[in-house]
Fold these 2 entries.
Entry 1:
Amino acid sequence: MQDTFKHQGLRRKLIEEIRQKGIVDENVLSAIGKIPRHLFMDNAFVNFAYVDKAFPIGSGQTISQPFTVAKQTELLSIKPYEKVLEIGTGSGYQAAVLIVMEANVYTIERQQDLYKKTKDFLPTIGCKCHFFYGDGYKGLPKFAPFHKIIITCGAPEIPEELLEQLKVGGKMVAPIGGGNIQQMQLIEKISDTEHKVTTHGSFSFVPMLKDKDDSG
Ligand code: SAH
């Protein structure tokens, strides 16, 4: 499937919609405008690719709502060449936004079929990224520290091991809460022992799961 003028027009409308919902970072809006979201979706949902909603991507998971992707990205204040760790590769859409913003992205997915599919797909649209199959709770100590960390599944609490892998001065954005609704938290690491937390609205994510046996 191609990226057509029709898709580009739909993306311009989507950008206006998420701008009205409160996204102000032009770099984030411009990245959303460059990414053909319809190529990330299952065939059954391609016609809804530019509707501001989450959709199923198989394996019981979802591609995040564009507003949510924009919000998490905006909170991270991404700068070119920053090393960014993403937990929950899923469709690769959030990773693509970070890559278009010139971040150096390391992404972890715990479901093997999604890991494989996205690892094969992203390079076909020119997105270069480091893919890992495993448990995001552990992070990637071998590649730490990271300037930024983004969790794209609902974590019951701030994962301590990930906070350790964040640079001092770095930022982590994570939907925190055990139930169906999470609070979007921005965690700024002030020193090796201190961090500041601010909250940025309610969101609904699939849960961040611990090991690979309970995913179905
Ligand atoms: N960033 C994705 C959102 C996918 S939904 C996108 O843009 O499409 C969240 C993803 O987190 C799911 O694919 C799920 O399998 C994954 N996930 C859940 N728990 C995880 C864990 N402990 N480690 C890594 N990935 C996890």
Entry 2:
Amino acid sequence: MSFKLANIEGRAALVDGENYYDLETISNGKFDNDTSNALTNLVGLSELSEDLSKSEPTGLLHDVKIDAPISAPKNCYAVGLNYRNHAEEAGMDIPSVPMVFTKHTTCLVGPNSTIEMRSDHVDYEAELVVVIGQPGKDILKDKAWNHVAGLCVGQDISDRTVQFSSKPPQFNLGKSFDTFGPMGPYLVSPDSLQNKESLQIECKVNQEVRQKDNTNDLIFDIPSIISYLSEIVTLNTGDVIFTGTPGGVGVMEGKFLKDGDVLRTSIEGLGTLKNDCKRISDHSGVNKS
Ligand code: ZN
């Protein structure tokens, strides 16, 4: 069950190397153009992936605009303080239950999208992102990977002013400005990875490495997060989960993102996001911190 699924200019496509193959075309209409719909038939996706060499590529990835692998999930969850070194740098106790908030799905954008900043306190958070395949409720930890369609790279961009301006703090809006959820470049099925629970993760601002860790340092691993969430909410096909960021975020040293910065976020086996940062205006709370 191995595949790489991309969203090329709004159309589902399978990826092989630098080539992409329009899913509706190569499946003779068995699949439509929607990536979330494609995740309801993972076996079919894998079979088509095995036979890609028999089809003519639709085009080259570097010639097209790649959108977020899932453009309109029902829900997008995120886990805070999920790496020990990040909880420590934030001066917080190691959590005993996952600290979950949501990113509004309208913030999700493609792997090379411009991040539009409205204050001088916008920060990066490199994260492994999980996308749900088979829906589920009350999912047991040892069955959780059966519900994962794929993994990709994500950035949980955060306006720290808005994130912490209300008392008590409420994370959703500060992390949900339009463009604050770059993800991609495509969805990789877990079995494409040699060790899906141990992946190097790195974030660079321009040429400077700011975050470097391994996803085996997650406090709550993917099965734990899925099991915990699904006791509360039904997880649906296409739902997105940002799993938390390692230490090294900008706020700790006052190294926020600036106009013109280039943010590169990579995870072993999943690819790289490259996002230009643009300071477009001030939001109303910008002078309050
Ligand atoms: Zn985060």
